[in-house]
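Expect chain and fold; see below:
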Amino acid sequence: MLELLRRLLFAGLALEMMAANHRVEIDLPEESLAYKLDLTLPERNAPYFLELKPVYRRFVSQRPTFLHGVSRLEPFLDGVLLIHRKGNM
């Protein structure tokens, strides 16, 4: 299961969601990353799409890369960034 989640996070995780209250929790112990998000989605005719895109760690002289692990996850709802915090979420 952990390996499947790692593969999904490599490309980003996308969920189709209906109107309701939602809690999304993802724990990646090997990355020392715990992510929690509470959403209240109002009624509408189309489903919502939540994407969790990984932001990879980087070293001073290098570009960010998945080889150094995940720094944080950024949530996008229908393509719009919901929140942005520095450091782990």
In short: The mean pLDDT is 78. The beta strands are 13-17, 20-28, 33-41, 48-56, 70-77, 80-81.
